[in-house]
Amino acid sequence: MVSTSRGIALLLSSSIALLLVAFLSLMDETGGLVLLVTATLSFSISYLLIHLSLEFLVFREISNIYNVLEKIQKKDVTIKATKKMKASLPPLRSLQANINAYAAAKNREIETLQKNETFRKEFIADISHELKTPIFAAQGYIHTLLDGAMEDHSVRDKFLKRAAKSLNNLENLVQDLITINQIESGFIRFHPINFDLRESILEVIEQLEGKAQKRGIKIDFQYDADSSYISYADRDKIYRVLQNLVSNAIKYNKEEGKVTIQLSHNKNHLSIKIKDQGAGIHPDDLKRIFERFYRVEKSRSREKGGTGLGLAIVKHILEGHKSKISVSSIVGKGSVFSFDLPAGNKEVPPG
């Protein structure tokens, strides 16, 4: 009873009334009726004031604080600010503010843990599937050879080449996993230098020209011959970004289509756009194509090769340059990937 606001108010008001009556009883002129009225009024007024003060200023706020603590214990820490918090006593207001801040931090921590758990499960499922494909393929070819196909030289050579290709795909997957893990962990450092971005794009085109010709795809590189395209960035990593995007533009293009690469100079940065004439990307997929192992039309993507990590690596490399990759696409007409890089000095040091 004493632990409630009424019990405390009753105890204190009774004590105040008794003390006041005891004090007045020391005076000879004070009659019994006066003492009774004084005791009644002092008890009633004290009880009301103490009870209301405790109930609305202390106990209600303490009850709210206990509710918050109970929610934290149950991992339900959704905290909403209320006007009552502003009306509470300063010590309780400060305490409640601290608890709310703690609850909000715990809420973020729980959300992060839940996201990490979901990501971990998805990642394990994805990596298991991605590793299984090349391993089973190579294993199948080798076991077929061991079961008697070794004698047929044409079959042997064909199966060994296919097994080697599967193992190469496995190696590429492992290397991409190592790369993306190192970038995310901060183990890979970026070493920006001044270099000619146009020359890097021309090198990528030269490297992938044979791949494009096999599918009858034309690569159109558009730039202003009179402009300077010196960028200040990590040349090797940007080369990998360009290589991945141009390779994808060729891989997912239509037969005898065209890949357009646009390079332009805008104030203090350089802009690169890479367009293809492929099937395009559905709006629902656009939000996720930079996730690890996310593939649009998974069966067709695996037929075309790749590890499913290329765009994730591209995203991380550009984020390391304080830039970001953008994509727009129209289903049936193709996609456009674009990003910016900081412009560098016009004079490039030799070598």
From TrEMBL:
GO cellular component assignments: plasma membrane
Keyword Transmembrane helix: yes
Enzyme class: transferase
EC number: 2.7.13.3
GO biological process: cellular response to phosphate starvation
The entry's keywords: Kinase, Membrane, Phosphoprotein, Transferase, Transmembrane, Transmembrane helix, Two-component regulatory system
Keyword Kinase part of the UniProt annotation: yes
InterPro entries: BphY/WalK/GraS-like, HATPase_C_sf, HATPase_dom, His_kinase_dom, HisK_dim/P_dom, HisK_dim/P_sf, Sig_transdc_His_kin-like_C
Pfam families in the record: HATPase_c, HisKA
Chain segments annotated as transmembrane: 7-27, 33-54
Catalytic activity: ATP + protein L-histidine = ADP + protein N-phospho-L-histidine
Molecular function terms from GO: phosphoprotein phosphatase activity; phosphorelay sensor kinase activity
Domain Histidine kinase: 126-345
Record protein name field: histidine kinase
Source organism phylogeny: Bacteria, Pseudomonadati, Bacteroidota, Cytophagia, Cytophagales
